[in-house]
Amino acid sequence: MKNTLLQKLGFGLEDRVVLFHCDDIGMNLGSVQAYQDLKDFGLARSGSVMVNCPWFLSAANLAKSQSDADLGVHLMLTSEWQEYRWRPLTNPTPESGLVDAEGFFHRSEYTCWSLAQAEAVEQEVVAQIEAALRVGMPISHLDSHMFAMLSAKTLPIFYRVAQRYNLPMMALHSDYLNRVAPFIKHTQMQRSETPLVPEWPDVLATTWEMEQADTPLFDNWCSLPYKHADDRVGHIKHLLTELPAGVSFFMLHPSLDTPELRAICPGADWQIRVADYHAMLSKELQAFIKRQGIHLISFKDIQALLSHKGSHFT
Fold this sequence. Notes:
The protein has 314 residues and is of the alpha/beta class. Helix content is 41%, strand content 11%. It contains 14 helices and 7 strands. Strands 1, 2, 3, 4, 5, 6 and 7 form a 7-stranded parallel beta sheet that branches. Helix 10 packs parallel to helix 13 (283-292). It starts with a helix and ends in an 11-residue tail after the last helix.
């Protein structure tokens, strides 16, 4: 099925459209400050907030106070860091499968997908959205930490919750899934010893359902190397040069360089986040994007397509 998002956004079939997205906002204070700077610079205007993290309110207040802020909820089912951990809002029992022996989210999405009960997953992600709404945060979209909501087990929940709140979601068109085998193997958990198939529906089955309902979906997904912080601008330019026509989601993890960030993310990770931040403030990159004829959008542009459905978010 042909994706119609390009045309609905007002672009031509051969246009290349990119949404640069700042993940993990609110994990640390430097991520909130980084989003502020990047939004104002104009290349990366969208981001998503980690409701279960300590600096959530700072990010929510930014979204409330600045009309050009474009922040969604970064739905969380995993907690990967060694000593900086977060817990579910729903205080679930161990039988829910949502938490490890210490009461935190599992470190791995695979463990979550294997053990978490679907009902517990839905209750938790709804609780995170409701927590954002309670503090008055305007929500432009939904995505998920470590792709936790894109598995065969969780994608139907993700879709149902996005429909309930009439919000766009970070999900991918079947054309992408069919041509990028590692991604679909990841979300089908076919690379693990205990695959979710056939116990759970195929990712493509849910994707086709979304397509039949004319749900806005991304044609491509991009991210930078996550092993080193070298030449981020060069890597971005290379990825953009190779980008096919369509609407592409480009994942970033920007943050200011702070002692807090270095304590949370040891090794190369903190350097990668700081490098993402500086790359998206690059005038060289800004000029390159213009020369390439690439169009930039935010999630608010996609959210506007859903406004006719009468959501209380618009």
